[in-house]
Specification:
486 residues; alpha+beta; two-stranded antiparallel ribbon; 10 strands
């Protein structure tokens, strides 16, 4: 039976484009994955790059096509793609971002990736394969749409780092208003170049996974491809230089074609396009030979995500982890800032903890987004004030949030506290309650004082009930223990 099991295991682990069918024991810690991304982001524009034809998403097929996009009398859009590859609009940049540590839900580490170049180019049409009719349909609505292609150096090590990079890039592009980054609409697409090699040895042969259109697919495709290549190499095979696609159903990569060589692209200049010239007035060495000053655009740009994180940390004293989570959602950071402007609290960490750990949890259980929250920022600020001023306990603050969010209670937090008698008991009254519990439970007290420490929890429960859960639990517990030990 063991022999049959091993045979079946070998068949199961076979990769159809591997050069071997045998999979020995794997040694994973000697391999170094290398990942580089190429991102195509559709520029927010009312029209196409070189024509006035509309660029609306979701229009019926071939209803947003002009003579230029159709490239008559050709059968494909122009027969070639106009791109700035040789003269990119920008190069030699970098982007820093935070990657979540998988073992800890609220821990991150910082990573940076070089941006090799950023260039403008036009999108191409879309082929639709109709298997039932055995035909291929062509939709030219996307042909000619303006794209920015961002080519990143191979500085990534796994799918999680790639996902973190794309999330940060999406935040930047949406913040400056140049791309919607709606991957489900094709506004942002990612190609991943993946290879593995042993540390200290030359880079391995790479494969390219094309047109990844979701964060989930990006992570799964990269991590699967890393494992697939290690399987091949450790089995003594050779990784082929191929173009792959990701099958979301099977969560595997599938071969599309052998990788094209540089000569197959046939790059050539477009003689009908004049050069695009830019200059930066902040750079003393830059010659102002154009009407477009980068610094003028820089002055009008919104605050970038990393700048917002630093401001939240410096101005409100919140943790890096909380700042990352807040900035990941524009509606969330706006809510936080509205709360801080509506309260006298200087404890931004308390506010952000209540917002992220408690209010969001309540809203998620109700399937409600923060921007649709019934609990307004001003009401949230009032809850913070009641809590910080010692009028209510933390548990009561949570009860108020849940009550307003779940039932739509129109009363203010202060009115809810007063009506339900949820005001915190003054600490100087706790001794009376503790002494009453001790005098009313002499048998339990006797057991405790004779060394049975287990009955303390029972006595504590009675004290909590006596105070109607309106006492500071830690102070009540300390006081009860002190009185029992006297």
């Amino acid at each position: 039976m063991k022999f049959v099991y091993n045979c079946l295991k070998t068949v199961r682990n076979f990769r159809y484009y591997c050069t071997t069918q045998f999979k020995p024991a794997l040694i994973r810690d000697v391999w170094q994955p290398v990942i580089g991304l190429e991102v195509h982001a559709q520029i927010l524009s009312a029209s196409k790059l070189f024509s006035r034809v509309g660029a609306k998403y979701g229009a019926p097929p071939n209803t947003q096509v002009g003579i230029f996009e159709a490239a008559h009398p050709g059968t494909l859009p122009a027969g070639y793609q106009i791109t700035q590859k040789d003269c990119p609009i920008a190069k030699d940049g970098f982007i820093s971002f935070n990657v979540p540590v998988q073992e800890y839900s609220m821990k991150f580490y910082s990573h940076s990736v070089r941006l090799t170049q950023l260039q403008l180019e036009e999108d191409s049409g879309k082929s639709i394969h109709d298997a039932k009719s055995n035909r291929v349909l062509v939709d030219l609505n996307r042909a000619g749409l303006p794209l920015m292609e961002l080519v990143f150096a191979p500085d990534l090590r796994d799918g999680e780092e790639a996902a973190a990079l794309i999330k940060e890039l999406s935040l930047v592009l949406t913040r400056v208003g140049t791309c919607s980054c709606r991957m489900e609409e094709g506004a942002l697409r990612v190609d991943a170049n993946i290879s593995v090699h042993k540390q200290g040895e030359p880079l391995g042969e790479r494969t390219e996974v094309k047109n990844l259109n979701s964060i989930r697919s990006l992570v799964k495709a990269i991590n699967y491809e890393i494992e697939r290549q290690i399987d091949i190499l450790e089995a003594g095979g050779t990784v082929l230089n191929e173009t792959l696609r990701f099958d979301a159903i099977t969560s595997t990569t599938i071969k599309m074609r052998d990788k094209d060589t540089i000569h197959d692209y046939r790059f050539m200049p477009e003689p009908n396009l004049p050069p695009l010239r830019l200059h930066d007035s902040l750079d003393a060495s830059c010659i102002p030979n154009s009407s477009l000053d980068i610094n003028d655009i820089r002055k009008k740009m919104n605050e970038l995500p990393e700048e917002t994180r630093r401001r939240l940390i410096s101005d409100y004293g919140i943790s890096l982890e909380n700042s990352i989570i807040l900035v990941n959602d524009d509606a969330l950071v706006d809510y936080f800032l509205d709360v801080m402007s509506g309260t006298k609290s200087h404890n931004g960490q308390l506010v952000s903890n209540l917002l992220l750990n408690n209010l969001l949890g309540t809203l998620n259980s109700l399937d409600v987004d923060i921007k649709d929250s019934i609990l307004s920022p001003s009401a949230f600020a009032e809850i913070v004030h009641l809590l910080e001023s010692g009028q209510i306990l933390h548990a009561v603050a949570l009860k108020i949030m849940e009550l307003i969010c779940s039932s739509g209670d129109k009363r203010t937090p202060s009115e809810i506290v007063e009506t339900n008698n949820w005001t915190k008991l003054p600490d100087d009254l706790l001794e009376d309650y503790v002494l009453e519990v001790i005098s009313s439970n002499k048998k339990l007290v006797g057991k405790y004082r004779r060394g049975n420490s287990k009955v303390f929890n029972t006595l504590m429960g009675k004290a909590v009930a006596a105070t109607e859960r309106r006492a500071d639990m830690q102070k009540l517990q300390d006081l009860l223990k002190r009185k029992l030990d006297e």
